[in-house]
């Protein structure tokens, strides 16, 4: 009815309004009906948003268009950001084991513990290890001699300066990212090195436990109710060099999460997605798939499924590894997949087909799916089978897939209501924290000027809906979330100091 | 049939291939069947493309990801680019009057003509004017005194240096664009100033004629068969200060184009889209629409329709101006519109609705339509009514809508076969020439690694199909193009030195 009137003599205001309304309804959350209280809260929120966007247009300083390392300070001054911090965000579904906790504690606490050793690789990267008796063995290839940190600090003139340099080694944050990271290969190399550096600290058994507990705490404080963690389950070690297996790690994750949930009744807990490096030989990948199946039997409550990690652009597409990845199906075993796929700008490569292959291999969600909008068939399958993408805006920007986040391909997917959730990938490594920074980028940048409380509500509801939790647990999570949401909306509507 | 097998125990290679094939068919040109000769040519072309992309992946120097000012030299070294230069490209449908001819001739020839005066604005911009008797009147506001260029050059130590500085004033090209143009407002101001500077030279009647003829020549040499020019039809002046009206300008365009077509039987000519500045008062815009209708009656062969120009982000949406824009419809007059719409990153503003409003106002094509992919309803109308967008990649990059062209929103539209043509907007001002540079960006960057001769063929066919030419003329153009295409394909297939 609306389209036909386009051919009439006069375009009518009401027809135009109907088309615009239709478009608004297609946007994520566009069909939600807000309560009176929510409408009121929305007005407050949009007043803040509109003022900040008007200001950004005037100053040409718009955080979502800027590199996050430069935008961060501006974001922290934003009133909208402070609202988003208070907002209950449901679940964080795309996170990696050692990127969830701000690195301060690692430097100021962990590296001060007894028996902490440090060595330098020829390329200037750091490796840590706790050991007693010393020195830790084996010595990493090409590394300098092990240096006992306590002794080393004792000799330093300026320990603060040294500690700050350690902090810098644990994140990608720099003043001038374009200069420091001239291309994707360079930043990915540095990114993976940071994981190696962090690993030496966090794989030490006492730290491992505490890191995870503090990570949960950080997300809890950012008003997240539940998380799913991609974990490599690498051997955790004791002071005497003894190492633990995957089961031990998974069991520890489970214990810590359950304890945390018990201590915080408004937090649901965490589940683990066992993640293996895609660059490994297909035989090893097959072994890791087998291991995943065993773990899933043994830890049904905590073990959510399997994923492959590492830079996709380096090759090793899902289809090349299918021999390993179809093992569960051939064995009639249900191993949910949560594949990273389409984290690339290289449309048309074998890697770029990962978005399609992830779907063919029956993935439960698509990690990133940055390339999905360029794959109409995969996009339709994802839509029809309700397989969401996990959008991590800051990660995509820092890892150089896109600069101005308004051009993030999720923008067009959002505008047509494609299934998706928002997550933060490795917030601590990007200098972010929890989910709020990524929600800010989505709300202010990717979703457009008009996007309001509806999209925020739907995205948080999505995070529960698309989680790997059982129907029961989803219901519990939603109840917890709803209570918090109502309070959040009430406080916002009443203009309570957020 | 294909989707269902996804649920079978084993994903099958042939099902996957069918899905990939389906996706390839959806891409622009995906359904074209190539002749044997074309298949052969395609193999040659793809060998060049694949080698260049492999090289780019190795060096991390990929022109479509780089700013055009830096990429230009690399593009000119590309073998693919040299093929694209030889390719008959059909029509260039989105161009502006004084951005079509490399600026060299303006400086090295035009400014050396007698009676050429120069003045400087307080902001350091240049204005030119020819006049006899001197000095030219009126003097532009705030400008320095008029300086006779001949006299001025006589006093200079280094005329070459001065001429080079003039060249720089006629394009946006700089070594470090990110530094020189810190935001969109700044580059748009500079962009519009260049038009003012160029205007003083090209609105001089003898130059006007010759500029257009040489512009046609430059596109002809770039293997373009026809063009449509957005022209402001500002008063052209004579040496004695007498000015001509719009009719005179349009008549001159017509004469020059017809003469050029007569002298070059393999060139079809040009049509004019009268373009008025969107920032003007709606009363003036109404007058310009009336003027457009009159011109269309008087010059049916040359006058194609009407458009509004100027930075959209500054406001003045189509809907705000609808009172003027619905005049033809209310008068039962057929005035085709070719609206610029959606040349913005600001999703959700009133300006962002221009893509929808252009369609409601019955536009024939959408200029840029950069925002279209974020408007599912407008996108569907554009698709169903077969209204193409005019994609100008280099313009969008230089004017800071997108940095890495692989993230250009046309990528997803291309992959689903959305109607579109490729054009170059103001190549001379961006340091480009003809259409080849923009075709390079599309073929290598936006369309993805797998895109082949099919997409090129379809895009050139599109340019004829979506032109404003009559059915007859389209047929003639296509015949001319086909002959050239066959020769191009033959030479490429036979490995003839291109
Ligand atoms: Zn990830
Ligand atoms: Zn234009």
Please characterize this protein's 3D structure.
- The structure is a homodimer of 498-residue chains.
- The first copy, chain A, is of the alpha/beta class.
- In chain A, 49% of the residues lie in helices and 10% in strands.
- A 4-stranded parallel beta sheet of chain A has the order 1-5-6-7. The first copy, chain A, has a 4-stranded parallel beta sheet with strand order 8-9-10-11.
- In chain A, strand 8, helix 16 (354-360) and strand 9 form a beta-alpha-beta unit.
- Residues 1-9 of chain A have low confidence and may be disordered.
- The interface between A and B is large, with 62 and 61 residues.
List keywords for this structure.
homodimer, 498 residues, alpha/beta, four-stranded parallel sheet, 23 helices, 10% strand, globular, disordered N terminus, binds zinc ion
Short description:
The first copy, chain A, is α/β, with parallel strands linked by helices. Chain A has helices spanning 2-5, 13-26, 36-59, 68-77, 79-86, 104-108, 149-155, 159-168, 177-180, 184-202, 205-221, 246-263, 282-298, 322-325, 327-330, 354-360, 376-384, 393-398, 410-415, 427-430, 436-446, 453-465, 471-493, and strands spanning 91-96, 116-120, 126-130, 147-148, 226-231, 269-277, 303-309, 340-341, 366-368, 389-391, 420-422. In chain A, the strands form 3 sheets. Chain A has a 4-stranded parallel sheet with strand order 1-5-6-7.
